[in-house]
């Protein structure tokens, strides 16, 4: 059964579309799922697909803190620079929030950027 999933991914790769270039991860979602399914089987591949699908939601924010870049997804998961796609990092992306230059109190209140839910105080991230 894992071969059906792998075949579906290969067919997906052959479809010409710009959607393939929109992944926020360095290892694209389809390549990640293909690798996991190849190495660990169908169920692991489906879990990897669900995991990546939950993370790849609109509403992510790329920010810099302490000289490193991070991507915070809509569900609060923080992805470190090593896993972020180059298209989401400078110089290709200039819309990066630099937390080293921001008053944290303004950020928490959402006054400066209109993103009051960006920093959660429950310290899960």
Q: Can you describe what's shown?
A:
With 125 residues, this protein is α+β, with helices and mostly antiparallel strands. It is built from four helices and four strands. The chain has helices at 2-14, 29-40, 42-55, 104-109; strands at 61-65, 68-72, 78-80, 97-98. A four-stranded mixed β-sheet has the order 3-2-1-4, with no helix packed on it. α2 packs antiparallel against α3 (42-55). It starts with a helix and ends in a 16-residue tail after the last helix.
What's the SSE pattern? HHHEEEEH
Cα-based radius of gyration, to the nearest Å: 17 Å
How would you state the average pLDDT, rounded?
80
**Secondary-structure content class:** alpha+beta
Shape field: elongated
Low-confidence stretches: 111-125
- In percent, how much strand structure appears in the residues? 5-15%
Give the topology, please.
Layout: H1 2-14, H2 29-40, H3 42-55, E1 61-65, E2 68-72, E3 78-80, E4 97-98, H4 104-109
Parallel strand pairs: 1-4
Antiparallel strand pairs: 1-2, 2-3
In short:
The protein has 125 residues and is α+β, with helices and mostly antiparallel strands. The chain has helices spanning 2-14, 29-40, 42-55, 104-109; strands at 61-65, 68-72, 78-80, 97-98.
């Amino acid at each position: 059964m894992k071969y059906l999933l792998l075949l579906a991914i290969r067919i997906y790769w052959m479809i010409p579309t710009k959607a393939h270039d929109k992944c926020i991860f360095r290892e694209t979602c389809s390549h990640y799922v293909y690798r996991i399914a190849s190495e660990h089987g169908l169920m692991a591949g489906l879990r990897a697909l669900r995991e990546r699908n939950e993370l790849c939601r609109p509403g992510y924010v790329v920010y810099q803190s302490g000289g490193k870049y991070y991507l915070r997804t809509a569900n609060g998961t923080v992805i470190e620079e090593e896993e972020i796609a180059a298209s989401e990092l400078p110089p290709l992306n200039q819309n990066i929030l630099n937390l080293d230059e921001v008053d944290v109190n303004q950020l928490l209140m959402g006054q400066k950027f209109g993103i009051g839910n960006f920093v959660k105080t429950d310290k899960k991230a």
